[in-house]
Amino acid sequence: MFLNYLKIALRNLAKNKLYSFINISGLAFGITCFLLISIYLNNELSYDNFHNEPEKIFRILRDNEDPDNHYLIGYTSGPYANALKNDYPSYIQSVTRVMANDGVVDYKDKTFREERFFFADSNFFEFFNFPLLIGDKKSVLTDANNVIISKETAKKYFGDANPVGEVITVDKEMQFKITGVFDNNNLNSHLKFDFLGSLLLIEKYRWFSGWWNNALSTYIKVSNLNAEQKLKELFPGFMDKYFGEDFKRIGNKIGLTIEPLEDIYFNNQTQFDFADHGNKTSVYIFSVIAFFILFIACINFMNLSIAVSAGRSKEVGLRKVIGAEKKNIAYQFIGEAIVYSSIAFVISILLLEIILPYFNSFIGKTLFINYGNIGLALASLIFIIIVGITAGGYPAFVLSTVQPAKILKDDGASFKSGKSILRRILVVTQFAISIILIIGTILITKQMNYLSDANLGFNKEQVVLLNVDNGTFRKNIPRFKEILERESGVKSVTAMSGEPGGFHDNYAFKIEDKGEEYVRMRILLCDEDYLKTFGIKVIEGRDFSEDFVTDQSEAMILNETAVKSLGWTPQTAVGKLILINFIETTYRRVIGVVEDYNFTSLKNKIEPLAIAVRGDFRKAAVKLNGDDVKGTLKTIEKAYASVSPGYPFEYEFLDESFDKLYKSEHDAQILFRNFSVTAILIACLGLLGLVMYSAELKRKEIGIRKVLGASVAGIVALITKEFLILVVIANFIAWPISYYFMNEWLSDFAYKINIGLESFLISALIAFAIAVITIGFQAIKAALANPVKSIKYE
Amino acid sequence: MIKLVNLDKYYKNKFIKTYVLRNINLEINEGEFVSIMGPSGSGKSTLLHILGMLDSPSEGEYYFFNEPVHKMSERQHSELHKNHIGFVFQSYHLIDELTVFENLETPLLYQKVKSSERKAMVADMLDRFKMVAKKDLFPNQLSGGQQQLVAIARAIISNPKIILADEPTGNLHTNQGKEIMDTLKKLNDEGKTIIQVTHSEENAKYGNRIINLMDGWIEK
Ligand SMILES: Nc1ncnc2c1ncn2[C@@H]1O[C@H](COP(=O)(O)OP(=O)(O)O)[C@@H](O)[C@H]1O
Ligand SMILES: [Mg+2]
């Protein structure tokens, strides 16, 4: 029986080549998108699921408890771990700490900057479940100079040789002995590291035991699942016990909380931590898109199958006459759909293998198809069957109800599926989905263009950024400036705590004429050339200057928003006295006010900002004059080598680093574009099939009309009109839905475009144009056919 | 074997009933060879379809081996139909996508006959109708007469009690038609009940009884 069905299915496939092609390729596209997104989602949702009892592991978070600006901080200091364990032994089973760091690693002739050189307590590998390829879980981190490296890193430095026992040098001074190799290749964790040193080394430093020196993450394993709630209740007492005096002194409180391990990856509330984070919204969006595309592909399949089924009704009638029951017929057509979906599935696996490398380089992950996974194979089988049933179910149902007596009357009258409402609804749905995606693409693109064209209030062109990440360079910044400022290709050089778009800490300030009250503002610490280098405009007072030695400790510049929030005007602000509470003890005098500029990103409103000259640098910026960029970069490299010997020269252009702030939006843009192209392609295939079929059914009608004198144009219009109405309806459905979702998406931005009507009109136009091309070609073909042939044919 | 009592068939179009069959009373015994005659549109095919349970009467009673068919569910209809009735049409109605062999095999598939047995039965049939050489051809590669022979073979392969043939020779040349009629006659001699619709006096003579239909009435 099955073989018989299979034969029929394949023979039909060969007979209706074009239909089959449209059908299978549409389905294959849909399945490819679906699989791609499934693999992506599977990867995203698998973070930190490989640990033992992950539900018992939590990360300690500090809570700034400021109702105006509430956020959580992933950094804690060294003493928390032991204090927690000692104070709550009945709730906390074990603790471990992880510190993120970076450094320059030397081994023989190899030197690399390593961004992910972490340190952890010696129980790390017992606490978490990262598998060790070489080394013993218990003992790999027992000595202060121990380090464990990843498989990839081992390959990079040592090739195929066993790295255990080898000694590497970090930052030109510290020696580490490699004691093991771990494998985190196919494991997804919010902790991403290539090196893991022993925290014992760091513990030796005095700063490590300071409660305020938050430099690491603390993890606890609780003894039972009720502990989470209990601990949260106990934490205020804990903080008062260890910070009571400090809180009183600074007039500010900090809370403590914990978050489950499995929530860390998707937690976007935590503003400061070193964890690898995912975006739950993209996960939702992708899931929805995946189902959409698969859905419209299935719709296609149904639609075409119903269309073709008209031609199969005779076969069905016959089968009933010779003994088939309803269920036999239904099985046959569902079986055929499964054959089609299997073929489509195989094609989509091939497509997927082609696409995956591109997708991987795009999302910066290493997704792959795990062919060895039995569960996956089983899931695929079920998937194929479900798609088959979904796509073939309706045609199967329609055909199984065919009445043989009606079909087989010898006068040859045949079953016609005619103007099925359902098929029209399906096409409308497909187009509505496509239009939603097109509108999304247009609006995202507009917003991105808006962001990149927006006036940020500073000049981000031709600025080279360097990290100030080693003591030698930090010490030699004045010399570095001196060397480069002589160069003709360089306009100016500056060093600062964070570049525009980069890190701007949040500090408490005391305003002299405002009594004991604290004001929180963002802060930027820099040298005298900062404003000049970035072209930030001083609107009142003056810029910092080396001519005033006192600027180093006594001057401050505010932005307009800060001035406004303090209730001043730029004119009255100049001359006011402000204290940077935590790091300084003497007041600084406001010497100038700058025009507001976007020092974070356009996602955020401009906040109050205080700028002061102080040697607390993390970044250096070199402004080029743009003549000979390549040559100037060489010059900078040489200067860097002379002030920071032995460290690799790494730089970035500010405009590029600024663009990275919108990476997720940019990714969304590309994805939307690709998905909308796919969706419209699939929808067109569906429409094409439908039109072809409709033209086929109408052959006789068209023939008679032509004989009666209808023009080709008239007939093309007749066929086209019928389908274009569907596209109009699709637009009306798509518009409000798009409006709603795009409004949501744009609400992430403090600065954004207006959703104008024109994006909607443009996408309607695109949908129309594509539909007209798809339909028109077939319509013209039908209209040009020789009428005599058509009539005879019936 | 077959008994129709006061059987009507009409099509409702809005509020108007169009009668196709009126007050049909008919009894057919096992082993008979009945010919139904009448002008085009008089309801011959409709009657045959009702007899074959492909269509249901609007009113009246239909007994098949004393079982009330008119009271049965669709499922029971298909069950009776597939076990006891073979159909032959004017335009052969073979499945175009299947070979001769597969066309013959299909009814057996629906009756869940085992594969080995199926092969044997199909081979028997091919042998009997001298079509062995043609078993792998598709219907459109055969002449009309050959196709009709295959259709007859398909109708009898599952060993039905009764064969319903709707103008089986209508599309054929005289010679081919004669061959088909001879085949039907032979089947009748072997004990099969046969009901045929025909326009030809000559073909009607193969049977032992003629029923004349006129505008849906049986002429007495
Ligand atoms: N589905 C239907 N709806 C309305 N009238 C029908 C339908 N099927 C058949 N008829 C009518 O029933 C009558 C008898 O048809 P049929 O049994 O095929 O006649 P015959 O086989 O004797 O030529 C015809 O007039 C035909 O138009
Ligand atoms: Mg007829």
Describe what you observe in this structure.
The complex is a heterodimer of chains A (794) and B (220). Chain A has 794 residues and is of the alpha+beta class. Chain A folds into three domains: 2-39 and 281-447 and 664-791, no CATH class; 54-272, no CATH class; 463-661, no CATH class. Chain A is built from 26 helices and 25 strands. In chain A, strands 1, 2, 3, 4, 5, 6, 7, 8, 9, 10, 11, 12, 13 and 14 form a 14-stranded mixed beta sheet that branches. In chain A, strands 17-18-23-20-22-21 form a six-stranded mixed barrel. In chain A, a hairpin with a 6-residue loop joins strand 17 and strand 18 (518-526). The longest helix of chain A is centred in the middle third of the chain and has 42 residues, at 280-321. The model of chain A is unreliable at 410-417 (pLDDT under 50). Helix content of chain B is 35%, strand content 27%. Chain B contains seven helices and ten strands. The mean pLDDT of chain B is 91. By secondary structure, chain B is of the alpha/beta class. In chain B, strand 4 and strand 5 form a beta hairpin. The longest helix of chain B is centred in the C-terminal third of the chain and has 16 residues, at 174-189. Chain B has a six-stranded mixed beta sheet, with helices on both faces. A four-stranded antiparallel beta sheet of chain B has the order 2-1-4-5, covered by helices on one side. In chain B, helix 3 (100-110) packs across helix 4 (115-128) and helix 3 packs parallel to helix 5. Chain B has helices at residues 44-51, 74-84, 100-110, 115-128, 144-156, 174-189, 201-204, and strands at residues 2-13, 16-28, 33-37, 59-64, 67-68, 85-88, 162-166, 193-197, 209-214, 217-218. The site of adenosine-5'-diphosphate has 11 residues of chain B, from strand 2 and helix 1.
